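User: For my dataset I need records formatted as: sequence, then structure tokens, nothing else. Please produce one.
Assistant:
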Amino acid sequence: MPPPCSSIFALLFLLAVHLPPAAAAKLRPASTSPSYLRISWASNLTLLGSASLLPGGAAVALTTPSRDGIGAGRALFSEPVRLLLPSSTAPASFSTRFTFRITPAPTYGDGLAFLLTSSRTFLGASNGFLGLFPSSSASDEGEADLRGVSTVAVEFDTHRDIALRDPDGNHVALDAGSIFSVALASPGVDLRAGVPITAWVEYRAPRRLLSVWLSYSASRRPDKPALSADVDLSGLLRSYMYAGFSASNGNGAALHVVERWTFRTYGFTNSSKSQAPPPSEPPVPPSKPLAITGGNYHPHRHHFLLFKVLGGVIGGVILLVLVVGASVACLYKPIRRTNQEPTMPVPCEDKSYGTLTMDVMRRVLLVGLSCVHPDCRKRPGMRRVVKMLDGSAPMTLVPDKKPPVMLQTQGNQTSSMNTVDTVNTAFYSCR
């Protein structure tokens, strides 16, 4: 007696989803491309001071819109990032892009900063120190209070503090081991406008050049950086550093929110030695961050590895073929409709093969098409797939025509490095 149709479908579906690691490794091309780790704001972050997750976990707030409490907060990626190889004194290059919003409530706070720090637990003072350094660091004896903590930060300052040599209440600055900035400039945008602002920060280690761009647009980076500083960070960057954000309020109060964030390092001669302490399995080496697949999951991490573009698309197509093939194989005598409606096989009458209703077949086809949508953000998660298949969740909207495949290059949005200098080593993303 042939196996029931549902059993065949379940078997093929599980084979498609749970590909053995050894078999999957054979399909992966050898590459020195970066490891792409998809991070949720709700995990993999260390929150200090007044930092907290916003409802829904879609963003992180570094401060509260009041002058009560600590007044400073930090959000750091919990795992250290390799920035210096033991056998070399030359640090890695890095670039980051993030979208933030500073909302006065009703007065202005002091601003926020992107930082690299050697300590995951240290939190600096509020007011103009932005949670980066202790208040005593503004004095001659302040170095002793740093306790060996190394910090590099890019400030987005919204309050003028004359004692800290601020030129005005709307500027971008570079702090290299001290609250007294080594370079500063006008941001070209109003940091206190309460609207989303996207920042790009890029450090090119071979040229010892740090650049910062700011824009109201999340997709178009300005041609000219707002800040460009010649600085050697090799004396401040340790073998491993923590990347994240810090903000503070003082006499005023504002809500400092980071909504989206990507970070990567590159420039190592051997990428296998340059990643952060490895997870339980080696990450998947991709070339473009497009298709998302599950991997390296355990209860305290929500990492997702990103396949290469072709790998993700082909994998989805294979899954679709298996799902549809299993359904068609279950039909004993398919019949085509003769009216003007789209044709679709109808259930067979041979009860030994089981019966598939038109609704079930339509659901299977739509789920398969949803899983191979060119835009990975519009693909349903596995839990939703299961619920859609058993009818407990509504179907996702499938367009009438195949959407165009949009492949975004690094180009204007991330880094402008040449091919010799772009050996990527790590990529982290919070959305």
